[in-house]
Amino acid sequence: MSKKSLQNKVIIVTGGSGGIGGAIVKSLSYYGANVVSIFCANHPEDQADENIICLKANLTIPAEWDRLLSFTISKFGRIDVLINCAGILEPGKFTSLDNSQISRMIDLNLTSVLTGIHKSLVIMKNQKAGHIVNISSIGGLVPMPYSAVYSATKFAIRGFTFSLAQELKDSGIKLSLITPGAVSTKMLYDEAQDKNTSIAFVSDPISPDEVSNIVLKVICKPKIEIIIPKDQALSSKLITYSPSLFSKFYNIIHKVGLINKRRYLKRNYAHLTAKGVM
Q1: Active site includes 150?
Q2: pLDDT tens, 12-53?
Q3: Distance between CA atoms of 102 and 127, rounded to whole angstroms?
Q4: Residues 79/124, Cβ–Cβ less than 8 Å
Q5: How far apart are CA 66 and CA 59, in angstroms?
Q6: Which of the residues 150, 250, 264, 269 is marked catalytic?
Q7: 8 Å CB contact between 232 and 138
Q8: Cα–Cα distance measured from residue 163 to residue 123, given in angstroms and rounded to the nearest whole number
Q9: pTM for this one?
Q10: Could you say which of 3.40.50.450, 2.60.130.10, 3.40.50.720, 3.30.1490.100 is the CATH number of the domain covering 3-274?
Q11: Where are the domains of the chain?
Q12: Contact indicator for 42, 21 with CB cutoff of 8 Å
């Protein structure tokens, strides 16, 4: 990939302080894009590049979207790409979640994404160009027991992306969905703390940089959906098209996932302990 393909593009990345979002922000900046990195809680101190502007915003509040979009237009005059990467996962049995936990996941993972896209499309339609990239999850293809609400939001994002892409097919605005399997982030480690979660651990997690590389490629050459790693694409789609297949093999999948999760926790505990984090 040449630097010229992304040079000076104006790109908003939500969830810019997260594992995947942070990797995307840094890669885009390296290739010369002007990046507006949106964070909610902790300022990403490692994003000190002159091509990166960090903005704090609560994306579940529509007025915050108005503010960050207005800032970007005022600063750069356009928005070339919106990358929706912000998300939250609170694992556990559905019946053990309280209303606030359910609302937090739906509000951030789904409602705020629709709100941001709705407002961004006003700008992109005036430009007659733009690209929206939604970061989903294998949980939007494969059911995730004990992360059911998170999985529901990702299933919804997938359906929304495909539906909206059809509406906008002659507008000059592109939509893409990146669907990664398990990714080595704090979210995955937090998910591993629940004793029942297993689906995300059936295969080895990939790195945030691997997701970032795919995002950069899809910006340069838009595609409607990319599932990574590739070896999970066929099995995931088979389960999507045949839910009974998932139910039939779930006990086996669950056992394999739990075994792999124990190994994952052991490796990461040792790693974090060595770094003085635990």
Answers
A1: yes
A2: 999 999 999 999 999 999 999 999 999 998 777 777 688 999
A3: 37
A4: yes
A5: 10
A6: 150
A7: yes
A8: 20
A9: 0.92
A10: 3.40.50.720
A11: 3-274
A12: no
